[in-house]
Protein: U-box domain-containing protein
Organism: Triticum aestivum
Amino acid sequence: MDALVAGQQARRRIRPPEPLVMAASPTTPAAFKCPISLEVMRSPVSLPTGATYDRASIQRWLDSGHRTCPATRLPLASTDLVPNLLLRRLIHLHAATLPPSPSPEEALSQLAASHGEPAAAEKAVRSLAAKIAPEKGKQASVASAVAADLDSTVPALLSFAKGGAGTDARVDAVRILATVAPEMVPYLTRDGTEKRGRVKMAVEAMAAVLSAGGVSEDAKKALITALVAGDLGRVVATLLAAGPTGVVVLEAILTSPVPDADVKTAIADRSELFPDLVRILKEAASPAAILCMAAAVQVRGRPARASMVRAGAVPALALAVAAAPTAAAESALMLLVEAARCSDGKAAIAEDAAEVAAAVMGRMIRVGQMGREAAVALLWLSCCAGGGERKMREALAAAPEAVGKLLVVMQGDCSPATSRMAGELLRAVRMEQERKGMVSSSYDSRTIHVMPY
């Protein structure tokens, strides 16, 4: 009996609570993140719809004229922002459970030691990126840490930016590079073959910064200001020698509002500019080379157009029209239009008439509206304007489906000027085909003036 009572008392005994085990790095609850910025909220506030946002993010939304809730899309009866004190307290309590954030130097060491471990590398990059957020005011400490050893930190960041990480993580790496990009400008003007590795590293970092969508415009302007402030001639020569990557930087300089007109003119007037751009275009089929040519022509006008033709750009651009991605092909077509506006350019196009006509007609329907109109303008300038060039008319008449493709352009949503030029080209093609005996007897050439609507 005593044993039974003792057993029942033991069962009734309350067990001591088990110790609470806290994860080493608890994940941040989704409710703590602002729906707009996707960052942990610093000052959570609620709208009348009940949705909560970080104050800075929702204030920017409202200041831009919006009067709807970003999350629910419901109209706002009021734009009053009510502080969510409970959520703010919970965020602070959660932050206290997180391990201390590593210093910039520690994060860089972790990045350097993370070979073959993408998760560790991404964690280090995220930690650094969090410290350069505008509201945290720690950008200088990150820049100082990276600049202390550019030769090892920049390659590590570049490798991560080009690796298999997610898009946001890659952009974070480039944003970190942007804090020190101006520090690398002197690498472009130093002598010595032993500096080639540093030049390549610096150019790659600058191209990544200037072509990234997630880098602030202020950071890009700071880099371009540093590039044009020193020995501009040597900077341009080094960028051209660096090939397609360097041309990305040069094109960013020519299209940026930062340099004044004199600086851009000085770049466009350099004797080696177009020959080097043509070389790069031929060797690497670089879209950046096409864009850089277009920027130089935009800056300098007729002199740059003549320099481009003399450098042998016409056959290189014809190849780009045939094989480049759509945007680059459209830019190449517009550059050929510029070339056709001068006598030397028209002669150069006629010299390669078969290649130019085949490339243009082969791509005319496979570009956007702007590209189609540029193609028609190029052919009209070459075949019709001022009497045109017979070689181009013969090449166009021999191109497969030339009549059909011109009719397709006319039937599309083209401008009146393009429609008129296409009509004149149709007449020129049919006359040339009749002269060569290429026209079927069943085709009534007298109806060529009728608009095909």
